[in-house]
Every structure is written in C-alpha cells, then in structure tokens.
Amino acid sequence: MTKEVYRYTATLPKSEIFGLQSQMRRAAVSIPSNIAEGHGRLSDHLLRVFLAQARGSLYELETQIQLCHDLDFIPPDAVKDLFELCNEVARMINGLLKTLKPKDIKQHAS
User: Per the confidence metrics, is the pTM higher than 0.85?
Assistant: First the structure.
C-alpha cells in the first residue's frame, strides 16, 4: 500500500509537494513502521499500542485520499484502488488486535 501511495502522490500538483503529498507519504510510511516497532518491543501490550497508532495513521491516510478525490487531484480509479488497499490493511490490523486480547486488570479497593 505504501508503494502505491508514493506512486499516486507523485502525480499530485506541484503545489502539494509540502502539503498533501508529504502528509500522505508520512502517514503511509507510519503504518508499517508502527507495526514493525510494536513487534520489536516483544510485548503484547506495546504491540497493541503501536497497532493502534498504525490504525490511526491509516484513518488519517483515508481522509487524505478522500480529500484528493474531492479536489480532483487523483482519478476515481486510483481512489478506488487506494481505498481497497486501506480496507485490506485495516482488516489485517484489526485481526492482529483481536488476537492480542488485553489482560484483565484487577482494581484493588483502597
């Protein structure tokens, strides 16, 4: 998905190099980066935290894709392709989150 975001954002207007292009690329890179960092922490709790951050970046990217569509910066077929990739990544992240059930935290009465 990240490679596709780079490919499609290369066609954005030059005026968006420091705007949407930069934001979309950062969000797209952030998704796999957070997953990798969470995995490297060797803790289910921290992996959940980083997966949640990856999901947040994914939602950010979806918003930016929609904005590109609304501004006619990328063609409808590209928007469709990117949203399909986002949905696939969201399913994978949500599946991972379901396998990492948080441990019950017992509260102690003082």
Answer: yes
Q: What is the DSSP string of the chain?
A: -HHHHHHHHTTS-GGGTTTHHHHHHHHHHHHHHHHHHHHHTT-HHHHHHHHHHHHHHHHHHHHHHHHHHHTT-S-HHHHHHHHHHHHHHHHHHHHHHHHSPPPP-PPPP-
Picking from 89, 88, 86, 82, the residue whose alpha carbon sits closest to that of residue 68 is: 82
Q: How far is CA 81 from the centre of its chain?
A: 15
pLDDT in tens, 22-33: 999 999 999 999
Question: Which CATH number describes the domain made up of 2-99?
Answer: 1.20.1440.60
